[in-house]
Amino acid sequence: MKNTWSVDVIIPVYQPGKEFLQLLQRLDQQTQKPDRVFLVNTEKSYWDLFAEKAGDRLSPLLSDASLWHITKDEFDHAGSRNDAASRSQADLLLFMTMDALPADKKLIENLVASFEDKKVAVAYARQLAKKGATQLEKMTRAFNYPEEGRIKSEADLESLGIKTYFCSDVCAMYRRDIFEQLGGFEEPAVFNEDMIYVAAAMKAGYKVCYSADAKVYHSHNYGGRQQFHRNFDIGASQVMHPEVFGQLSSEKEGVKMLKGQARQLFVTGHGLEIFSLFYLSACKYLGYFLGKRYAKLPRGLVLRCTGNRAFWNRIYERQ
After folding, report:
1. Which residue among 193, 217, 241 closes a domain?
2. 201, 217, 233: which is the final residue of a domain?
3. What is the pLDDT of residue 270?
């Protein structure tokens, strides 16, 4: 086992702004700095506008970065990340999204520590709600990302159910040798490329670490329509991978979270937000319900339901 691991960071970029600049700045301030940063940017015009606004602040942050541009139609949750990973020679690959902000200077250091266990293939960070997040969003982050970390393996399926495979490429670190051994992310992917990979890793005898000490700020105050689109794609991705999700229930976990949030809202004096909770939950479930039945829906309806039209257009073009 190595005492020192090299780390490359991979970030898909789309319409970057001030928050993305903050991410680059915070990565530069880490106690263990990344060896290289790979940026796969969607639509060059958006990057050019960002670079113009960032001015002289940007260049020093890109000294060890590789940047290339693709079109929106070329982006794929799995394929674009696989392409970036193939360019890296580091021991560890840290996949992040452009809206995840390291909460302190030890994000990378704490994730790297997870790999002291030779069986750990992936380590993912705790996500904290950002300033301005709704009460519901704060509770959702707390439900999915508790204070205590743990190492998960396939032996936990009976007790954890679908949460066994839970992982998020918002901020997750992968051992590159195992990543290559398992063939990377299965592509194309409309969603859940991280959980699908974790399931394959566990079936191969590896473990996944939830590193609660590694923290990023990441949250979204999604409305009903956004939740509907997002959960349509989640449902569809699960149907596309019955080997992972076929025997596991997402609905059970969703109901558990719904009951817990309703109870907490009432107890903490946020009772009026229960109406918002049930509305957003209904949008989630409707999207998920239709997503799981996408094969029976006409193409036009699928394109109206999805949050990733480019993915579905590629799928239909191949048929």
Report:
1. 217
2. 217
3. 79
